[in-house]
Amino acid sequence: LRQYQKRISLNLERERALARQLLKEGKKAKAMLLLKKKRYQEQLLDKTENQISNLERMVQDIEFTQIEMKVIEGLKIGNECLNKMHQVMSIEEVERIIGETQDAVEYQRQIDELLAGNLTEEDEDAILEELNAITQEQMELPEVPSEPLPEKIP
Q: Where, by residue number, does the polypeptide cross the bilayer (predicted)?
């Protein structure tokens, strides 16, 4: 279409020059006929330009549609991948793993406390009871006097 436009443009320039020459020679009717032909070719040139514009728009639409198709294909593949991952890892499986992890963390915390010397509440209570028993055994009570108490003086 671009080559066709170039060819028509060259023809237009030649016919315009020829129309000038015909007018100089006094051949007004032939010049008028040539200018009508030139006008018709200008209209063809405009139509050609519109066709080129339509083709360019169509090419852009096709390219954009191809990009959209790639995006959709990517989304489709991503969705399939997610579905496969969901099949492998169910909600129950995740809950089980989380529960096991919490149990393991609690168990490790207890081990850390034992290694660090931290005692549980039960151990603390047992130690306090033992301390109270030892304290009462060691407490020395004052001696009770063996003599009778003096009577009250009125």
A: none
